[in-house]
Design brief:
Oligomer: single chain
Number of domains: 3
Structural class: alpha/beta
Strand content: 5-15%
Shape: globular
Distance between the termini: 41 Å
Largest sheet: 8 strands, mixed
């Protein structure tokens, strides 16, 4: 593969991150490297300790587990059978144990982590636990691995907060090799565009609940991940481009021969890269500053979920790397958009994969000097190994170099869908926020209109249903940040706001809340920091103030004199209900300790 030198902007952003992170990264690596060469010898345990480890195993496994040089692989699983993406994981531990046994190794389920579905909790009170579930997953991962009897880790997880949580937890055990094992997407149902249209018609009162339910069940209809390019599938892209997946494995169908072969390969690869062998590849050496930059680039080039402007800073911090939204903004100016996957285009992730998928994206970016090649992956050194497409031929797993099979879905760097990437940093007198511009038509990139101010998502929808928003306006929704109520996703607003926009009104959304990669076409400024409860100016906006939202130039401001703005009292909102019901009372410590959105909205 002929490659150009690394792009100068990428090189500079990477160097900025390295310099900014020098102290914290060194401290992290020192902690991890203290464990190098220390094989997990079951002999370090007392007899009682070891007896507990092997008690439930068969005689053969008991014998192996008592040995010093036989690797034991820890499985951390997010399996539950309510969540379609994780339903296929039911048999994975059994398959993994069989696969590693062929190499004289053992595997045990180290622990389970919660896996909640944002699709189920959208618009519900339970969504206020969603972002914080990432922290719970990280903590649960650490508890599972704390028994100190594992030589490597296999992570079974797919969806929104689950993959970031698993990775944050595993980074505390960064001296262990770690591989993420996907389960694949469900078959394509009705088109995502048709699903979104039915939602809009329902919001307008033009179709009933029966039609809406029929549409939704034709879209979400089988085991596997949802087929749009939201946070769950953006997670899969990130794991591949960060070198934590077996190449090309993200979007292979569940229960297919190829999926079975990839799962077996991942399990056996985990055995081969433990410190017990000759190819030790610990997680802390895979995730470095260049890997994090590659992740941001992949997100930008493919139009991935804005949720990762929260998750990537949190992941990076867990291994001593400090990034911010300026890094995203600088890279977005240098990285073209070379993929169109819903909501940025018509194709779903199955069609994206068939067209060439993530391996093609990696190959094309590498060829043009837009990714760091000199990184470690679970397959070895060099990112180009991830630019391969898996096939199952003659009862064996093989790879071939990826090619572009559909230019309506994938493009070259020289002929991109857009010369700039899909994310924008917005700044002004309201603070700092982000927006996913790749899903928003150019004619909607600028809105200057009066504010309509709300403090709850329900109040916005009720106002829409009363016809009070049929005008040019910017919806301002505050007290939705991590401190206020856990930063629930506000995707439930999309049908109503899309309806207003389709009627010809200039509509925008400004919020300190969260939106996903599936939120679509309405111009927005989201994840605004400082949030309203942190003395943010968003809580000083009044109905009728003029808001300027300029996605082209990265400007977000309320056209009010700064002195007057500073004198205003914050609008009041009753937040007492956020602290109770559906487990919310258990998360008060999280809300009190959480960082700002730009720092990852994390408690760590």
């Amino acid at each position: 593969m002929t490659k150009q030198p690394i792009n100068s902007v990428i090189a500079q952003v990477t160097q900025n991150i390295i310099e900014r992170s020098k102290k914290t990264r060194a401290e992290y690596l020192d902690r991890m490297r203290m464990h190098y060469g220390k094989k997990v010898s079951r002999e370090q345990l007392s007899c009682t300790n070891l007896a507990h480890v092997v008690a439930a195993e068969d005689a053969k496994s008991k014998f192996i587990l008592k040995q010093v040089d036989n690797p034991n692989i820890g499985i951390v699983t997010a399996y539950n059978d309510m969540l379609s993406a994780h339903h296929p994981y039911y048999r994975y531990p059994e398959k993994i144990k069989q696969a590693v046994a062929e190499l004289g190794a053992t595997a045990q389920v180290a622990g389970g982590v919660p896996a909640m579905c944002d699709g189920v909790t959208q618009g519900q009170s339970g969504m206020e636990l969603s972002l914080f579930s990432r922290e719970v997953i990280a903590l649960s991962t650490a508890v599972g691995l704390s028994h100190n009897v594992f030589d490597a880790v296999l992570c079974l997880g797919i969806c929104d907060k689950i993959v970031p949580g698993l990775l944050i937890g595993c980074l505390s055990f960064g001296y262990l090799p770690t591989i993420f094992v996907p389960s694949g997407p469900m078959p394509s149902g009705i088109s995502n565009k048709k699903k979104a249209e039915t939602r809009k018609l329902y919001a307008e009162g033009k179709v009933g609940q029966d039609a809406l339910l029929d549409s939704e069940m034709k879209s979400y209809h089988a085991a596997g991940t949802c087929t749009f390019y939201g946070t769950a599938n953006s997670n899969q892209m990130l794991m591949e481009i960060m070198g934590l997946h077996i190449p090309g494995s993200s979007f292979v169908a569940p229960d297919s021969e190829l999926r079975e072969a990839l799962t077996t390969y991942a399990a056996q690869r985990a055995v081969n890269i433990t410190s017990n062998g000759n190819e030790f590849i610990p997680l802390c050496e895979v995730i470095c500053e260049k890997t994090i930059v590659n992740a941001i680039i992949g997100l930008i080039a493919t139009g991935g979920s804005t949720n990762h402007t929260l998750h990537l800073p949190a992941i990076a911090k867990a291994c001593g790397i400090i990034i911010n939204w300026d890094d995203f903004a600088l890279l977005s100016k240098a990285i073209p958009s070379i993929a169109k996957v819903y909501p940025n285009g018509e194709a779903d992730v199955n069609q994206f994969h068939e067209a060439g998928g993530i391996p093609y994206v990696i190959a094309e970016l590498l060829k043009n000097g837009l990714l760091h090649e000199d990184v470690m992956t679970v397959m070895g050194r060099g990112l180009s190994i991830q630019a391969q497409y898996p096939l199952y031929k003659d009862n064996k797993l093989v790879w071939q170099m990826a090619a572009n099979k559909d230019t309506n879905i994938l493009r070259t760097v020289d002929d991109p869908f857009s010369i700039e990437g899909g994310l924008r940093l917005l700044t002004g007198n309201l603070g700092r926020s982000v927006s996913k511009v790749s899903a928003i038509a150019k004619e909607h990139h600028y809105v200057k209109a009066q504010a309509r101010v709300f403090t709850t998502q329900d109040a916005v929808i009720e106002s829409f249903e009363r016809g009070e928003l049929e005008m040019d306006c910017v919806i301002v929704l505050c007290y939705q940040g991590p401190r206020a109520n856990g930063m629930p996703e506000l995707h439930g607003l999309t049908p109503a706001l899309s309806s207003l926009q389709d009627k010809g009104y200039k509509i925008g959304l400004v919020t300190d809340g969260r939106m996903s990669g599936a939120s679509g076409k309405v111009p927005n400024a989201i994840h605004l920091t400082p949030e309203g409860l942190n003395n943010g100016n968003i809580a000083r906006i009044r109905d009728g103030d003029i808001i300027e939202l300029d996605l082209e130039n990265g400007v977000l401001q309320v056209l009010v004199d700064d002195v007057e703005l500073s004198k205003r009292e914050a609008i009041r909102a009753d937040l007492s209900g956020n602290g109770f019901g559906l487990g919310r009372e258990l998360f008060s410590g999280f809300r009190n300790a959480v960082s700002t959105s730009e720092l990852g909205a994390s408690i760590f």
